[in-house]
Structure formats: structure tokens, C-alpha cells
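Late entry, evening session. Most of the bench is empty. Finally got around to the prediction I had been postponing all week. Sequence below, unchanged from the version circulated by S.P.
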Amino acid sequence: MHHSDVKYDLRYLIITVSSSRNKDNDVSGKIMADLIKQNCSRSMVRDDEVQILNELFYNYNKYDVFIYIGGTGASKFDQTSLSIRKICEKEIPGFGEVFRSRSGGIFPYLSDASLFIYKGKIIFTLPGSEQAQNIAFGIIKEIVGHLYHEVNKE
């Protein structure tokens, strides 16, 4: 059996990064959760490096894949990718490149969407727009099983 045929029962945490949204009006987080469907939890943090990183550290043993939504733009408040980049072992910029190319138009190129690896965990950082979630999930769904295998093989 080829490793790409293996189906992993991955656990996902969707972390919405926002100083203005809450669980009731977090449409993007709900969209992503509805796309993932199972083994998925949601949380929210403010646009703050300490909160962004603490959410990863606190939940490290509970989840395999962390999806941060929001905080990837050009604003001085957008801290998500910058924060994760400080602690990650590896950044895989190809994810962001594919995301931006599939998004169409010029504005996705202002996003710092990316993919990071931290101690065997997979971390995606995505824009907070509702439209971005379907595009990102399409890519995540294609690569996450293979990526998990590669990151965690002995």
C-alpha cells in the first residue's frame, strides 16, 4: 500500500484571529469547520502574538493540524504569519503560492497565507475572508494526508 492511500484521522483546530469578530459572527471559521466536518474544533484569539502562539502551545497535544484564519494581511494589526514564523521549524511557501494563484485577482497577493511545520504539527495561516476558505480547503484537502505522512515519518 502506498502512503498516499492511507487515510489519517487527523484532528483539526481552527483558530480565528480577530479583534472584531466573535463566535456568533465568525462566518469564515464556520465555513472552514463545515468543510472539514469531523474531528474539528474552533477557537478565537485577538490579533496578538502572545495569544496566537499560546493557542498553539496550549493545544499542541490535542490536534494535528492548526488552521489560523485572519491576521495575514498588510495591516499593522495582522500578526498571524509573522508570529508563527518566529517559532516554526520550516515554512513551505508553495502553499501560499498555490493559494494566491487559485484565488484570482491581485488582492490575494497582499496576503501572507502560508504553511508551517512545528514539531510534527501542520499549521496553515489563511486570510479571514469568507471566499478564501473554500479555496484554501480545496488545497488543504489535496495535500494534508501526504504532508502529515512526510512530516511524521521516522
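Two things to note before I forget:
The mean pLDDT is 93.
The first strand starts at residue 12 and ends at 17.
Will write this up properly tomorrow.
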